[in-house]
Amino acid sequence: AQKITQTQPGMFVQEKEAVTLDCTYDTSDQSYGLFWYKQPSSGEMIFLIYQGSYDEQNATEGRYSLNFQKARKSANLVISASQLGDSAMYFCAMREAFSSGSARQLTFGSGTQLTVLP
Amino acid sequence: NAGVTQTPKFQVLKTGQSMTLQCAQDMNHEYMSWYRQDPGMGLRLIHYSVGAGITDQGEVPNGYNVSRSTTEDFPLRLLSAAPSQTSVYFCASTSPKLPRGYTFGSGTRLTVV
C-alpha cells in the first residue's frame, strides 16, 4: 500500500485564486511529520511547510497553509492568492519516527503539477 | 554557503560503465540519503546513512552501492550502469535535532545509453 497518495497529477488555477493540493497518508506510527516541497522546472527541491503529528494547530507559512485532518489521514496544501511563480511540481512527503528500515527518511508522493494561469 | 553539494550535475554513461555520484554536506548532519526521481513516481529512497560507518538500504537499492567514511561525504556508486538507472538523483541530509530540517542537493541528471 502506498504511504503517500497524491491523486491529482495536474491542477490548474487562475492567478490570485486559492488552490488546494490533496495528500493522504498511511502510517501506524503515532509520531510522524508531514512535509510539502515545491519543485520548479529548474529541478531543486524547495521546502514549503511542515506539520508534526502532535501539532494542535494547522501549520502556516506565508501564503501556504496545511489543512491537517489527522483522523482522515490527510494533509492538504492550500496556496492562497496564487502567483505565476507558483507553477511547479508539488510533493507531499512523510517522515515516520519508528518505522522499521528507513528510519527518519522521507517517503514521497507522486506529485501534483500545478499550473497558474494568467 | 552551507548546504548539500552534488557533483556532477549532468552525466551520460554507456551501459556497463561504472561511476560515482558525489554528495557532500557541511552542516554536520548525521543523516544522509540518496533518492532517485523518475517521471510520475516522486522520489524513492535508494540508500541512507545515520552516521559515519553506518549505511542501510532503502526502497530501490539494487545496482547501487554506498559508503560513509566521514560525516561530510556520502558517495553513491553505480557498479554497472543500466538504462533503467536513467533518472535524476538527489542527495539529502538532516539531523535528529532538526525534525523538519531536510536539505536537498541540486540533483544529478544521469542518462544511461
How would you explain this protein's 3D organization?
The complex is a heterodimer of chains A (118) and B (113). Chain A has 118 residues and is mainly beta. Chain A is 0% helix and 50% strand. Chain A has strands at residues 4-5, 10-14, 19-21, 24-25, 32-39, 46-52, 60-61, 64-69, 74-79, 88-96, 106-108, 112-117. In chain A, the strands form three sheets. In chain A, strands 2, 5, 6, 10, 11 and 12 form a six-stranded mixed beta sheet that branches. In chain A, a hairpin with a 6-residue loop joins β5 (32-39) and β6. By secondary structure, chain B is mostly beta strands. Chain B has no helices and eleven strands. Chain B has strands at 4-7, 10-13, 19-25, 31-37, 43-51, 54-57, 64-66, 76-78, 87-94, 103-104, 108-112. In chain B, the strands form two sheets. In chain B, strands 2, 4, 5, 6, 9, 10 and 11 form a seven-stranded mixed beta sheet that branches. A four-stranded antiparallel beta sheet of chain B has the order 1-3-8-7, with no helix packed on it. In chain B, β5 and β6 (54-57) form a beta hairpin. The interface between A and B is medium-sized, with 25 and 27 residues.
